[in-house]
Design brief:
Keywords: Amino-acid biosynthesis, Aromatic amino acid biosynthesis, Lyase. The chain is α/β, with parallel strands linked by helices. The protein is 37% helix and 19% strand. The protein is globular. Bound molecules: ligand CA2.
Length: 145
């Protein structure tokens, strides 16, 4: 049976491709979902993508992932820089975790330079646009082979 990867997205990423294209690009989250599903088929991975604007909901999605999926790719958005709850939830997940940021957070405001999630992530991608999700998926295929 194909291994499943859950791609979790935090607050405001539902607006991807609709606002601030100079920072986040022109692709929508639906485009990301379609591209990753296609790449997943090539890699023999099943891909599910979710987005939530609510911290507790993201925590619950991570809890659900413990039973159902082999790997998590997460762009926690602003919660990256604030959420011990998301870090704690990820610490209960046993498989690989890859953190993705569309923009280069290190070239932005200093409050974006610290990530709680990086304390758990097996790898971090930042500044490669939405292509970062595909690169994370390729790495998942290697880690889960
Ligand atoms: O670069 C990233 O992927 C971020 O995780 C995006 C977050 C930001 O708070 C992080 O520091 C870096 C913001 C997501 C907002 O998404 C939007 C997308 C399109 C239009 C408006 C907001």
């Amino acid at each position: 049976m194909a291994k499943t990867i859950h791609i979790l997205n935090g607050p405001n990423l539902n607006l991807l491709g609709k606002r601030q294209p100079e920072i986040y690009g022109a692709d929508t989250l639906a485009d990301v979902e379609a591209t990753c599903a296609k790449l997943g088929r090539e890699l023999g991975l099943e891909v599910a993508l979710s987005q939530s604007n609510h911290e507790g909901e993201i925590v619950e999605m991570i809890h659900a992932a413990r039973e159902k999926v082999e790997g998590i790719i997460i762009n926690p958005a602003a919660y990256t820089h604030t959420s011990v709850a998301i870090l704690d939830a990820l610490n209960t997940f046993e498989g690989p975790v890859i953190e993705v940021h569309i923009s280069n957070v290190h070239r932005r405001e200093s409050f974006r330079h610290h990530s709680y999630v990086s304390l758990r992530a097996d790898g971090v991608i930042a500044g490669l646009g939405v292509e970062g999700y595909q690169l994370a998926l390729r790495r998942m295929a290697t880690l889960l082979a």
